[in-house]
Specification:
The chain is of the alpha/beta class. It has one domain: Ribonuclease Z/Hydroxyacylglutathione hydrolase-like (Metallo-beta-lactamase, Chain A), CATH 3.60.15. The chain is 23% helix and 30% strand. A hairpin with a 2-residue loop joins strand 11 (149-150) and strand 12 (153-154).
Length: 206
C-alpha cells in the first residue's frame, strides 16, 4: 500500500492519501493544501473521502476535493451535520471563520466498509468527539485513529460532545481489539504502534 501523509493547517493536522491495487482514498483532508491535489493526481482518481471525525482541522479540504473529483464524504452518523456547524466542529471555539460546507454525503453503516481494494473494520471510539471512529485495515496491519491516540499522548476531551471517561473507555477497548503490532496513523504527530503506546504512553491505563 502507498500511504502519503500531508500535514497542514494551524493545527498541523495529518491528512492521508492512500492507494492500494488501483483504489485511491483520502482520509481527513484538513485543508485544501495543493499537495493533496498533487498527490491525488499522481496516484490516480480517488473513490472517496473518509473522516475519522468532523472537527474543523480534519475537514477543511473536503469541499475543494469533492468538487474537483466528484466523490462522496463518509462520516459517522452522529457527526453528519458537523460540517455545517462551527459550534459542533470546534471552529467557533477557536474563533476561526467557518465557511459554509455541504453536509457529509454518506454515513458509515455497520462494522465494515469495502471500497475497491480496501476492506476496513470500523470501530466507534467516542470521547474525543461523539462520532470518532478508528479505520482499521487488518490485512495491512494499520489503522487510522484520528485524535484518539497519539504517540505518547491521547486526544483532548474538552470540545463539544467530548468526555474524558468515554475517551479512556474507547482507548481501553482499542487495546484489546487492535493487534499490538498494528501501526497507528494519527491525526497529529508521527505514526506509532499499539505495542509502543501500551509500553510508553503515560496516559494509557495499565
Amino acid at each position: 500500500m502507498n500511504i502519503k501523509k500531508i500535514t497542514s493547517g494551524l493545527a498541523q493536522e495529518n491528512g492521508y492519501v492512500l492507494k492500494k491495487e488501483g483504489t485511491v482514498l483520502i482520509v481527513d483532508p484538513g485543508t485544501d493544501d495543493p499537495r493533496f491535489f498533487e498527490t491525488i493526481d499522481l496516484l490516480g482518481e480517488p473513490a472517496a473521502i473518509l473522516l475519522t471525525h468532523a472537527h474543523f482541522d480534519h475537514i477543511g479540504g473536503i469541499d475543494a476535493i469533492r468538487d474537483r473529483y466528484d466523490i462522496p464524504v463518509y462520516v459517522h452518523r452522529l457527526e453528519r451535520d458537523w460540517l455545517v456547524d462551527g459550534e459542533k466542529n470546534g471552529a467557533a471555539a477557536f474563533h476561526l471563520p467557518h465557511p459554509e460546507m455541504r453536509p457529509a454525503d454518506r454515513t458509515y453503516e455497520g462494522e465494515a466498509l469495502e471500497l475497491g481494494a480496501f476492506q476496513f473494520r470500523l470501530y466507534h471510539t467516542p470521547g474525543h468527539s461523539p462520532g470518532s471512529v478508528v479505520l482499521h485495515l487488518p490485512d495491512d496491519g494499520i489503522a487510522f485513529c484520528g485524535d484518539l491516540i497519539f504517540k505518547q499522548s491521547i486526544g483532548r476531551s474538552d470540545l463539544y460532545g467530548g468526555n474524558q471517561a468515554t475517551l479512556m473507555g474507547s482507548i481501553d477497548w482499542m487495546k484489546h481489539v487492535l493487534p499490538k503490532e498494528t501501526v497507528l496513523y494519527p491525526g497529529h504527530g508521527p505514526k506509532t504502534t499499539m505495542e509502543d503506546e501500551m509500553h510508553s504512553n503515560p496516559f494509557f491505563r495499565q
